[in-house]
Amino acid sequence: FRTFPGMPKWRKTHLTYRIVNYTLDLPRDAVDSAIEKALKVWEEVTPLTFSRIYEREADIMITFAVRNHGDFFDFDGPGKVLAHAYPPGPGINGDAHFDDDEQWTKDTSGTNLFLVAAHEFGHSLGLEHSKNPEALMYPVYNSSTDLASFRLSQDDVTGIQSLYGPPPASPDDPVKPTESARPQTPAMCDPTLSLDAVTTLRGEILFFKDRHFWRKSLRTLKPGFYLISSFWPSLPSGMDAAYEVTSRDIVFIFKGKQFWAVRGSEVQAGYPRGIHTLGFPPSVKKIDAAIFDKPKKKTYFFVEDKYWRFDEKKQSMDPGFPRQIVEDFPGVGPKVDAVFEAFGFFYFFSGSSQLEFDPNAKKVTRILKSNSWFHC
Amino acid sequence: HPLNGAARDEEDSMDLVQHYLEDYYNLAKDAKQFAKRKDSSPVVKKIQEMQKFLGLKVTGKLDSDTLQVMHKPRCGVPDIRE
Fold first, then answer.
1. Chains A and B: how many Cβ contacts under 8 Å?
2. Is the pLDDT assigned to residue B42 strictly greater than 80?
3. Quick check: A183 and A229 in contact, CB under 8 A?
4. Beta bridge pairs of residue A339
5. What is the mean pLDDT of each run of 10 residues along chain A (376 residues)?
């Protein structure tokens, strides 16, 4: 990705837009919804929000024009230049112009207005063209884009978040009590420390909490402490669960109804996906914890006092689930915050406690503090 | 479109190439006829820059892939500016 020279960006998170006039190629409401959808693409991965105004000067003025239209960049009739836009700033800056000699369409039979608008609004927010052919900000229009599964590329997300940062935690999260307006940095040796999720990753153990994670290698006593976004900018903070499928070198991260797949620091394309694609019933709104049982090639998903078993080979849920956690993991639960596997034991976290569980003997072998791995 | 006469095509292409390199890759405007200078090093350099940016094979020549991309619809914001 590239930003404009001098990195111009909007110094506020709430922006206004105005559709100054309309193309006759599409019904007005189709133009309205294409523009709204195109702005939402960026809204979903940044703290930015957009609202429409109908008069006066908006931050992003949207016009359809042909040939010479008052700025020094004439349009050129059908084909070739489809539209252009200006980087953030006052006046014409931030505005987007669309060549009305094109045939604008809702699908890809002509020039798709949503796709071109989403690209131009990338400029309006401060992104230049990207060399990545997969990126929305690649300069050449790709008529074969599958609109149904359209997604920003990682390059686009990294780019826009380099200007505005990731979105705040989603509003439908349970609101966590916080003493002060600024998110706190969790204290590693706080005896009351609870964790969001724990997973292994290529031989290390990652302990996630709010916007950060501790990274523990078995070679060092003390863990490193990092911002999640410094490794995975597009991942949410305050995740629910995480587990590693070691045989595929993939870590799955869960938050709410969505889950992501990462390989090292690369978020895999095609994510996030909905958790219901894994076979959960609609009543499941989030996952509490998950762990991959390597010998059995099964993944256990813990949700409140129940758990599901997922067959990683068949890529489907085993029949006969959910079951009560306490039935098959005596001593564990009723609720689990996080779980991971080490030395053949499952380590279950609940609040500030941690249980070492022997899956073969089916019994808790030790009760520990949640931060016992940090050598406080 | 049905094929035009070849000579006409050639002329059209040179126009398109010149404008493409001037508008998006900051080729300096020059009064000399573009067809005569298309093999000159400044123009070759710009063609290479464009091919590199757009992920094409970097040949410095106006091969068919390069011409094909230049004909594709695109955004009017320059790829490389001063």
1. 58
2. yes
3. no
4. A348
5. 90 94 95 95 93 92 95 90 95 96 92 97 97 94 86 92 84 47 66 92 90 81 77 84 92 92 86 88 92 93 95 92 94 92 93 93 92 86
| Chain B residues within 8 A of A99 when measuring between CB atoms | 76
Given this model, what pLDDT does residue A184 score? Answer: 55
ipTM score for this prediction: 0.86
CB pair distance less than 8 Å for A81 and B75 = yes
Which pLDDT does position A320 carry in this prediction?
93
CB contact under 8 A, B74 and A141: yes
Contact present, A281 and A274 (Cβ < 8 Å): no
Nearest alpha-carbon partner for A343 in A359, A324, A367: A359
Select which of A120, A179, A244, A304 is catalytic: A120
Instruction: Name the residue among B53, B75, B81 with its Cβ closest to that of A82.
Output: B75
Spatial separation of the C-alpha atoms in residues A266 and A271, rounded to whole Å: 11
Cβ of A140 within 8 Å of Cβ of B53? The answer is no
Which string of b and e fits A86-125 if b means at least 16 CB within 10 Å? bbbbeeebbbbbbbbbbebbbeeeebbbbbbbbbbbbbbb
Annotation says A120 is catalytic: yes
pLDDT the model gives residue A349: 96
Token pair of A61, please?
């003025």
- What phi and psi values does residue A95 have, to the nearest 5 degrees? -80, 155
Q: Please, which residues bridge with residue A274 across strands? A: A258
What is the torsional sign of CA A318, A322, A323, A329?
Answer: positive
Q: Residue A40 is which amino acid?
A: K
How many CB atoms lie under 10 A from the CB of residue A198?
30
Half-sphere exposure (Cβ direction) of A329: Cα atoms closer than 13 Å: 25
For B47-62, what is each residue's pLDDT tens digit?
999 999 999 999 999 8
CB contact under 8 A, B73 and A80: yes
Name the helix (H) or strand (E) containing A118: helix A113-125
